[in-house]
Amino acid sequence: MAAPDAFLLASVFGILGNIVAFMVYLAPLPTFYRIFKKKSTEGFLSIPYSVALFSAMLMLYYAFLKTNAFMLITINSIGCIIETSYLVMYMIYAPPKTRIYTAKLLVLFNVGVYGVIILSTYLIPNHFLRIKVVGWISVVFSVCVFAAPLSIMRLVIRTRSVEFMSFPLSFCLTLCAVMWFFYGLLVRDLFIAAPNILGFAFGLAQMIMYLMFKNSKKSMLPEFSLNQIPNVVAVNDIVASDSQLKTEDTKKSSEAEENQSTESMTNDSRAEDAAAAEPNESIV
């Protein structure tokens, strides 16, 4: 393929990737509209937005090091702005303890870890080696992010319900991975193309799983609804809560059985006393 054709195709895939990624960044808007409307975070977690911000910051740093990566700079700059806006709104309406926890998370993770990465890689004298190191760090982090939906997939298999899975979001994430894979392939950037192979695989698996279980009987876990699940991390809380509820139900049933057995033993002893008393009465 001629160089101009490859550049043109890379630009097309880069623009499409920017559009789809922008839609993915806007996916939590209903959640934050609800937070704004109710003036409360209602137990929503800030970790996914902190992770998304860190990912955008890391890719932005990589793009600046690489140079001539306008497509990466554009979408990740937008991502940083959007995720920061989400976190600011979260901090405004979060309870004091949650606000403090979120502030600590941002300072330690988004400032501390990110700062360590920048400082440690800045000390590398060779520019191309610095790009490779930051690229591999980005790959490792991207793989961790793409592997996050495994929790939702496990929950879908466990409950036989797709209540916790959004098909449009899974589709957008898969499409986004495809666009950035071909962009990375055309610009010959392994650090962009490689992690999106895994992103495509997980996205495709989610969509297949959705089609498999979409007609299954819905089995929502107690006291939770889809609107209360903004991210993957919340699913773990739901599973834990479900286990706790089952444990409580087991304890209650055990207590009921013990009470029933105690009552039956009491009735049996009363019957035995009555039977023992009958011969004495006849003798008298």
Radius of gyration: 28 Å
Strand content: under 5%
Residue share in helix:
over 70%
Biggest β-sheet strands, sense, barrel: none
Poorly predicted runs of 5 or more residues: 220-251, 274-284
Q: What count of domains describes the coordinates?
A: 1
Number of helices: 10
- Secondary-structure element sequence? HHHHHHHHHH
Strands, count: 0
Distance between the termini: 117 Å
SSE class: mainly alpha
Shape: globular
Mean pLDDT: 79
What does the model show?
The protein contains ten helices and no strands. It is mostly helical and 284 residues long. The chain has one domain. Helix 3 packs parallel to helix 5 and helix 6 packs parallel to helix 9. The termini are far apart. The C terminus is likely disordered.
Q: Descriptors for this entry?
A:
284 residues, mainly alpha, 81% helix, globular, disordered C terminus, transmembrane, sugar transmembrane transporter activity, repeat, sucrose transmembrane transporter activity, transmembrane helix
Could you give a short description of this structure?
The protein is built from 10 helices and no strands.
Topology (SSEs and partners):
Blueprint: H1 3-25, H2 29-38, H3 47-66, H4 70-93, H5 96-122, H6 127-147, H7 150-159, H8 167-186, H9 190-213, H10 232-283
